[in-house]
Specification:
By secondary structure, the protein is α/β, with parallel strands linked by helices. 38% of the residues lie in helices and 10% in strands. It has one domain: Rossmann fold (3-Layer(aba) Sandwich), CATH 3.40.50.620.
């Protein structure tokens, strides 16, 4: 029994703290290998962004027993869809696609209009709920550990991202193995290891979501300024990584 397994008996928050401390001293391969070796079902959700491509590359290269899933919202860029297949072929991995339910899309369109997300924050959150949050719940069914590509440098809202935290809303451990990586380190890894990336990154899109909701950023803007650019809230998120009940372990 590992130290982390022993602490798990004290509760999920203590377990997250122990895991956070352990991951801090490891490199990316070590972090992923540690989590994969805990003997639980681990799911990595990828948006095919440059950070997530680094994680997929390490999972595939080291043949780690980590399930990989993506939220195929129905509004993704063509470049993103092509990258899914390219990544699978290069690393001999399977990326499971989770799509929104047609009934949910129809209900949304009836209430707000297909592109009603431009009209209000409420409508935009409702769209994210249908196209991302509900599919995410299906992607994480049966998982006890969720891996993400969150980094502290992505936005002010993510500046305190820990390596591990307890997500009380979803009742699982959330692991962010790239929390302390900056964008230059990400780009260097991609270059050194021939990792396939979305061509939109070279066109000014550091953060890529659904096509109607993503624009290229302007010089000097934060990485996520191109997401839901018409809204004024600087901490805007889709809800995947922000939950009122989430218990966060302070970053170290």
């Amino acid at each position: 029994m590992t130290v982390i397994d022993t602490i798990a008996e004290e509760g999920p928050i203590a377990e997250a703290k122990a895991l956070n401390d352990k991951l801090a001293g490891l490199d990316l391969a070590g972090r992923l290998s540690l989590v994969a070796g805990l003997g639980r079902r681990v799911v990595f959700t990828t948006s095919l962004g440059i950070e997530d491509q680094v994680i997929s590359a390490e999972i595939g290269t080291h043949r780690l027993p980590i399930d990989i899933a993506t939220l195929e919202t129905g509004r993704l860029f063509a470049e993103t869809l092509s990258l899914i297949e390219e990544t699978e072929a290069q690393y001999d991995i399977h990326i499971q696609r989770f799509t929104p339910e047609k009934a949910d899309i129809d209900a949304y369109a009836a209430k707000y209009g297909l592109n009603g997300f431009y009209e209000s924050v409420e409508a935009r959150h409702a769209c994210c709920g249908v196209r991302k949050l509900k599919p995410l719940a299906r992607a994480l069914e049966g998982a006890t550990i969720w891996i993400t590509g969150l980094r502290r440098g992505q936005s002010a809202n993510r500046a305190e991202t820990p390596f591990a935290e307890y997500d009380a809303e979803r009742h699982l451990l959330k692991v962010n193995p790239l929390a302390d990586w900056d964008l230059e380190a990400i780009k260097a890894f991609v270059s050194d290891n021939g990792v396939p990336v979305n061509p939109l990154h070279a066109r000014g899109y550091p953060s890529i979501g659904c096509e109607p909701c993503t624009r290229a950023i302007k010089p000097g803007e934060p990485e996520r300024a191109g997401r839901w650019w018409w809204e004024q809230d600087e901490k805007r998120e889709c809800g995947l990584h922000v939950a009122e009940e989430a218990s966060v372990i302070a970053a170290q």
